[in-house]
């Protein structure tokens, strides 16, 4: 695709300013970002207590796991930005990443509901918890 002075939509056609972008597009992004921030702060504020309580980790291990998760969450937007710019486009990337985020939240809720009566079930709970946590990241 050649670089020109005319703005183009995702199909390569000239974008009409009155019918593209604006608040119509911004509503989706604002709603997704608000929901993501609520979920992020809800998870991160309770994670140390959950890791040290039901999952039985030491405080040091829980803090290391929380820091690794926050570091991963801070880095991955750069990767998604590259994917959006180079391959998928901004709206497809938002839809895909939002779908992964919702799937991760569902799995995270499910991992908290799994009963842990034996070591095998506790290992399943820990594995499901960390898989869903990094799917959210």
Topology:
Elements (H helix, E strand, L loop, with lengths): L21 H31 L6 H30 L1 H24 L5 H18 L1
InterPro entries: MFS_trans_sf
Organism: Noccaea caerulescens
Keywords: Membrane, Transmembrane, Transmembrane helix
What does this structure look like?
This protein has 137 residues and is mainly α. It has one domain. It contains four helices and no strands. The chain has helices at 22-52, 59-88, 90-113, 119-136. The radius of gyration is 19 Å and the shape is elongated. The relative contact order is 0.10.
Q: What labels would you give this structure?
A:
137 residues, mainly alpha, elongated, transmembrane helix, membrane
**Measured distance between first and last alpha carbons:** 33 Å
Largest sheet: none
The total count of strands amounts to 0
**Structure class:** mainly alpha
What's the total helix number? 4
Low-pLDDT stretches are none
Overall tally of structural domains? 1
Please sum up the structure shown.
The chain is mainly alpha-helical and 137 residues long. The protein has 4 helices and no strands.
């Amino acid at each position: 695709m050649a670089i020109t002075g005319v703005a183009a939509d995702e199909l390569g056609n000239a974008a009409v300013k009155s019918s593209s972008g604006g608040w119509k597009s911004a509503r989706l992004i604002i709603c997704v970002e608000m929901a993501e921030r609520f979920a992020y702060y809800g998870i991160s504020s309770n994670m140390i207590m959950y890791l040290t309580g039901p999952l039985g980790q030491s405080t040091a291990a829980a803090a290391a796991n929380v820091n690794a998760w926050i570091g991963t969450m801070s880095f991955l937007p750069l990767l998604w930005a590259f994917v959006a710019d180079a391959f998928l486009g901004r709206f497809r990337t938002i839809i895909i990443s939002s779908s992964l985020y919702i799937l991760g939240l569902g799995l995270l809720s499910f991992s908290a509901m799994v009963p842990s009566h034996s070591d095998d079930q506790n290992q399943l709970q820990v594995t499901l918890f960390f898989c869903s946590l990094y799917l959210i990241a």
